């Protein structure tokens, strides 16, 4: 008589164990999906911050920030995306908000200063940078410090900050271009030429540095193209820059010759150079 009772107890026990196992399994699956969602969200955020259309990224992070207003990652994403979308005033406001949130770092303050510089608020950017601890030694911090010093014509400080910034990055081409332009505005053309040449050596795609190099050479009345990587279109554009610089210095005949060379060199119709030459001849 006891066997049926024992069997029933065993069946109940197995059912209970099975029930527990099912609950555990469901919980495990839910955790796994939750982890996958976190990974997917992280990957999507990375895509939005790098290769996505900037305005689409703004929409994505604005929605995410509205859903989780205390998530500093979403707020950072929104601020970065606004800057990428060239909505710098909104971006500066967004970065200001990030710097006041729990978990904010010195990097956030540096990004805020960068946004302020882009928005033209140099004084506030300087104040923000002054509040960053001196132990926070990053490339971006010192690049911005150099730009601020440049804006105040504090040349020794600017040179010092540029030098530190160059030493803190493996890709110094762009900051060397900035440093060269600083030297150009001071009238130190030879040093500007050296820095632009070094900038191009570091990054051969920097057309701005190539154009600035021509300006530095032309300022010294050197109207020959330097030996640097350039395609045919770039060569024509650089000749055009050199021509205008020569004309500005009073070397009109040289300028006319360079304009004609630019027109002949360009693989297509070079309207800007044609207009300049016609104006001179007219």
TrEMBL record:
SUPFAM superfamilies: TPR-like. This is Tetratricopeptide repeat protein. It comes from Sulfitobacter alexandrii.
